[in-house]
Amino acid sequence: MDSRSHASMQHLLPARHRQDGTWRFTVPPVEGSVPWVRHAVRDLLRRRRVPLGDELMFAVELVLSELVTNGVRHAALLTPRVGVEVTLQDGRLRLGVEDGHPYRPRALEASPDRHEIGGRGLLLVKAVALEAGGDCGVTPTAAGGKVVWVTLPLR
């Protein structure tokens, strides 16, 4: 099937089905990957016509910035590529960032400690996810790394 046939079939499907799917890509663990990921995901969501208002789009960009920055800053030595996964399914958006470092961030499970300097970005991610009615967590990978993920409901 050529791309024109596929595109015209997309218009015949209900809007919910046009949006659902999973997209994966990898980026090098360098600072320049952070804005690239943010823009790439924003463009993907716009092309898929995902119903995100400005506030939720800001939350998505903030979450991605924090998660990819953590992968770049804390896992670069053990991570040749940082993985990013975007899933739209059943009215929910799931963002996952995978790196090869075995350390599991505790900030998603804890309350802020005034004496700790790091980890506040992940606390912000947790707060954004919970305020939007979503969730967040860390899942180990078979290769010994982890995926830090956030789910957000689409309204």
TrEMBL record:
Keywords: ATP-binding, Kinase, Nucleotide-binding, Serine/threonine-protein kinase, Transferase. It comes from the Bacteria. GO terms for molecular function: ATP binding. Residues 33-131 form the Histidine kinase/HSP90-like ATPase domain. The keyword Transferase applies. The keyword Transport does not apply. Pfam families: HATPase_c_2. This is ATP-binding protein. The lineage of its organism: Bacteria, Bacillati, Actinomycetota, Actinomycetes, Kitasatosporales.
